[in-house]
Amino acid sequence: MRKQQNEFVSVIKKEQPKLLRYVRQRLTGISDMDAEDIVADVLFNVYNRMTADNHMENLAAYLYQSVKHKIWDHFRQAKTPLSLDALDKDTGLPRGEKLMDTTGDVESLVEKKEFALRLKNALIKLEPKQRAVWAATELDGYTFKELSLKWGEPIGTLLSRTTQALRKTLQEE
Description:
It comes from Sporomusa termitida. This is Sigma70-ECF: RNA polymerase sigma factor, sigma-70 family. By secondary structure, the protein is an all-alpha fold. Helices cover 71% and strands 0% of the residues. The protein has two domains: 2-76, no CATH class; 106-172, Winged helix-like DNA-binding domain superfamily/Winged helix DNA-binding domain (Arc Repressor Mutant, subunit A), CATH 1.10.10. It has helices at 2-26, 32-49, 59-76, 96-99, 106-125, 128-139, 144-151, 155-172. Helix 2 crosses helix 3 and helix 6 crosses helix 8 (155-172).
């Protein structure tokens, strides 16, 4: 029995890191502790099965086969569904409340998205000069006075390019 135990210890020292890698490759998303638990459980069970009467020819192969079966058991286990009504440990609130946006108003969100789509379509229809003025003032933060100086065009021309063209395009929508 002592010889078998020494053989077991030497095989474990050599194969344990490989067994852990084997488990992690087969079970993606598993934590390191869960992988270690699977391997430790197999090692414990195999060690308990070893007796003087029951000699294992190829202990490493037996360990890999046992780990493979333990992985199958892991897949077969019924997973308890996560309840959204269960209370969160940190906040004391139901977990489902984390998923809800209590500050959002669905109707206003839809209106904003529809307006953004209409605005995008309107901007696409603008001439390049009109779109450039709108982008410079609304997106880049330039004032019409700054653009007038930068581009060498009168402020009135810049104003008329964006306001009239965009208003007309939005009304057509």
